[in-house]
Specification:
two-stranded antiparallel ribbon; about 70 residues; 3-stranded antiparallel β-sheet
């Protein structure tokens, strides 16, 4: 599934491909925004961990499950 995160005052967005379900991602973000956490973490399908600040969070777009790709694969 694709996750795109916009950070305030930044022209670029963070794009993550994750194996987590949309409900799991939504819960992690909602818990961080409801509590007093200054950041939340997400892990992509290659094992990289992203620390995203809650203060600069502009938007989060959670996409559907990844479909088959065409072309070269890394």
């Amino acid at each position: 599934m694709d996750i795109r995160i916009g950070i305030a005052n930044s022209p670029r967005e963070i794009a993550i491909e994750s194996t987590d379900s949309p409900a799991d991602v939504e819960k992690v973000i909602a818990d961080a925004l409801d509590g007093s956490k200054t950041y939340f973490t997400l892990k992509d399908n290659k094992g990289k961990v992203y620390l995203i600040p809650t203060a600069g969070l502009a938007y989060v777009e959670v996409g559907s499950v990844e479909r088959g790709r065409v072309g070269f694969v890394n």
